[in-house]
Specification:
The protein has helices at residues 4-34, 37-63, 83-110, 114-119, 121-144, 148-158. By secondary structure, it is an all-alpha fold. It has one domain: Ferritin. It binds hydroxy diiron-OXO moiety. Hydroxy diiron-OXO moiety binds at residues 17, 20, 50, 53, 94, 97, 130.
């Protein structure tokens, strides 16, 4: 069993994870539009990982005999100017998600739901990786971004990112 407060925050986190997938798909569409298909691939892989994050929460709620409630997903930002700006927006978003995961951790602790407190550790570690991955691209774009040859090579590198399914129990 899971209490209502914890259930609500977990359901709301599902929405945030699927919104993240939507946002990264929107960013992917922008990169497709400007012909940076490697960057687009990177964003599509990211979107799939976000869907995994949502589904891991979904399955956890079911396992705890809670009821999954899906809510409306907002339309994502689609106002992009250049690759660096896109990744800066992604970084801001990931910081927001990190704070939201921290809230889940605090609430589950306050509610003495130690199973959820333990479960959410996976997301706490994942957020460190999520922020670092985006920051890594920002640093590269700041160093080489405006120069066409470098952007071409970076796009090739971004095209190599491959999706592997995320699983909480791996
Ligand atoms: Fe689910 O980590 Fe990004 O948003």
């Amino acid at each position: 069993m899971i209490n209502d407060k914890v259930l609500d925050i977990l359901n709301s986190q599902i929405n945030k994870e699927f919104y993240s997938a939507y946002l990264y798909l929107s960013m992917s569409a922008y990169f497709d539009e400007i012909g940076l298909y490697g960057f687009s691939n990177w964003m599509k892989v990211q979107a799939k990982e976000e869907m995994d994050h949502g589904m891991i929460l979904f399955d956890y709620i079911v396992e705890r005999d809670g009821v999954v409630k899906l809510s409306l997903i907002d339309a994502p930002d689609s106002d992009f100017e250049c690759p660096l700006q896109v990744f800066e927006k992604a970084y801001e978003h990931e910081k927001f998600v990190t704070s939201s995961i921290n809230e889940v951790a605090h609430l589950s602790e306050d509610e003495c739901d130690l199973a959820t407190r333990h479960f959410i550790n996976w997301y706490i570690s994942e957020q460190v990786e999520e922020e670092a991955n985006v920051l890594d691209v920002i640093k590269k774009l700041k160093l080489f971004g405006d120069e066409c040859t470098s952007l071409y090579h970076l796009d090739k590198e971004m095209g190599e990112r491959a999706y592997t399914q995320h699983s909480y129990k791996e």
